[in-house]
Amino acid sequence: MPAELRQRLGRWETLTVVLLVATIIAGASSSPDFLTGGNFNSMLSDVTEIALIALPMTYIIITGEIDLSVASVLGLSSALMGSLWNHGWPMELIIPAVLVAGAVAGLVNGLLVTRLGLPSLAVTIGTLTLYRGLAFVILGDQAVADFPENYTNLGFGSFAGTQIPNPMVLFAVLAVIFGFVLHFTSFGRSLYAIGANEEASFFAGLRVKRIKLSLFVLSSMIAALAGVVFAFRFGSARADNGTGLELSVVAVVLLGGVSIFGGRGTLWGVIVAILLLAAIRSALTINDVADEVLTIVTGSLLLLSVLGPSAAARLRELRHGGAEPARPPVESGAGAAH
Amino acid sequence: MSVPNATAASTVAPPSTGRERRNVLDTLLRVRELSLVGVLAILVIGTTLYNDRFLNSQNLRDISLNVAIVAMLAVGQTVVVVSRNIDLSVGSILGFTALAVGTLFSDHPGISIPLVIVLGIAIGAGFGAINGALVSLGRVPSLVVTIGTLYIIRGADFQWAKGRQINAADMPDGFLSIGSSSILGIPILPLVTVVVMLIAGYAMRSYRSGRELYAIGSNPEAATLAGIRVGRRVFWAFVASGALAGLAGVLYAARFGTIDAAAGTGFELQVVAAVVVGGVAIFGGSGSVYGAVLGALLLGTIASALTILKIDPFWNQAINGALLLGAIAADRLLSLRVEHALRRRSVRRAG
């Protein structure tokens, strides 16, 4: 079974790479402006926040949970930043303060999920509303835009004379760390174990609750960081920054081949999916295709990413005369543990 | 009034003496609809004492009109959530249907109003059937499927609208009056929602197909082994949710008169919030449409009370979020207590 799973997984991720290459070829052949440094720059800039938040979201979905409050934490952090700036705080103090606020927001999510045993879907829909509401309470409908140029440059500018946007350097560093931890450390393996079978992981001695709590804190801290980046990038801190971004993040993680049931997926798959999203968006914009088409393409790819493996399993099952029904590993595993 | 809740409460009541009062309280708390009515009553009385303008007929009318559409979506969502699924595409279906209704009226002047209403419901049901087929035949999780269709339907909506906006002048007065006129002093919009709620509530409680949804939500494997056609039931649950989202789109068009492609954006999370506040378990198997509608009503009333109490409307969303968290946390704490009581009783019996 594991070998077969790995194969299937490989197939989806290979497909995303093929799609990415195809998109780049199509984009380059349709417009001479596609393969330019400037376009590369704006292509990556557009997905900065989604990319940053997708890293911890990958961890959370691999453990079989979900965090829908991330975009609201982003908004809360932007609003807090704007408000503190209005109160005359120096930026060197504001950024740590905002990250701490993010950690607290994540702690609330994590405690409700792990200590009370509530489903993370319900908890984070609640905190999605709560944190966005707090953002409005803090900043109302004002926009704070008078940030110093050396900071907005961090969000808007490019890295040391290249065409790589500054926030993407931050993303690259974080992506390497997140990838290393997920695929080469025991902590990373424990995430897969929890996602595949939480009960067995607990009996194997993993501190399941503590690990999940730390992931929710991590997720909100990165979302708060993305809020700072967002405010610098657009030079504007508003309470409604990043509204609705949570579903794009979840979509890109699932598109990258991470199973919504947990226990399966790779970080590089998610990174390819982020690049694919960026490339498709750019290829469409450069050809003056309306933004709406992008929404349709994202939705269709998302459906394809889950339907593909499921249809393959169904076909195999039919061919083998219905020998074994395809089930997510979580359920069959939980049954075995009783 | 949810089936599993009621049985749980009656098994818990221990035969011992001296603790009846507490158990009555327990039962009252466990019947979510009653505690919702209680909270609603406290809210209404408190706000009215502060300012009696809250209970005047104009304000009550506004609240009921504002709540009617979200409550309609909440009824459909309950049918889906009870079966351990979720439908996040309802906001997009509402937007698409509202645009379709407006376009039909403006492109075909003189088209029959009932026909347009039926077409609106049918469009919604069609989208629901796509969701249902993907979930039950494709065997993919409904959360992912409906995030996907949320995007696709909204994208199609924008493509179709091309920045166009339908105005009240494009629609016949007879249709717009559905959104504004009353029968015997009660506005039509909430009346439609209440009728739909009663029908759905009766079907969920008294029809085999409705009760099977609870069985599926409580334990899908057991339901399959018991001979319930899980796939078929889940498919029809999504069709029902889609059809009600279509009807909600029709009502939206009639109420607001102005429709652009962004109509109903973000409604899905409001609806899920109303359903969860209303005591429907997010992982299926318990809850009722009455609770869901009360949840929507409570959230709508809070928004109105904040205006009357002159609290900054920016607090509205934060309070909704806190209420939602409070509701699920309270549910969980109560069920832990019941579990504890059950275990104690079985230990006592064994000894």
How would you characterize this protein structure?
The complex is a heterodimer of chains A (338) and B (351). Chain A has a single domain, classed as ABC transporter involved in vitamin B12 uptake, BtuC (Orthogonal Bundle). Chain A is 75% helix and 1% strand. Chain A is built from 15 helices and two strands. Chain A has a two-stranded antiparallel ribbon with strand order 1-2. In chain A, α2 (37-46) crosses α13. The longest helix of chain A is centred in the first third of the chain and has 29 residues, at 2-30. The two termini of chain A are 21 Å apart. Residues 323-338 of chain A have low confidence and may be disordered. Chain B is an all-alpha fold and 351 residues long. Helix content of chain B is 76%, strand content 1%. Chain B contains 15 helices and two strands. Chain B has helices spanning 3-12, 20-30, 32-50, 57-82, 90-107, 113-136, 142-161, 173-180, 188-206, 208-218, 220-225, 230-256, 267-277, 289-308, 315-350; strands spanning 182-183, 186-187. In chain B, a hairpin with a 2-residue loop joins β1 and β2. In chain B, α3 runs parallel beside α14. Chain B starts with a helix and ends with a helix. Residues 1-18 of chain B have low confidence and may be disordered. Chains A and B meet through α6, α12 and α14 of A and α7, α13 and α15 of B.
**Biggest interface in this structure?**
A-B, 52 and 47 residues
Tell me the strand percentage band of chain B: under 5%
* Number of E-state strands of chain B: 2
Main sheet record of chain B: 2 strands, antiparallel
Oligomer, anyone? heterodimer
The number of helical runs of chain A is 15
Shape of chain A: globular
Class from helix and strand fractions of chain B = mainly alpha
* CATH structural architecture of chain B: Orthogonal Bundle
Strand order of the largest sheet of chain A: 1-2
**Tally of structural domains of chain A:** 1
CATH class of chain B: Mainly Alpha
Low-confidence stretches of chain B are 1-18
Distance between the termini of chain A: 21 Å
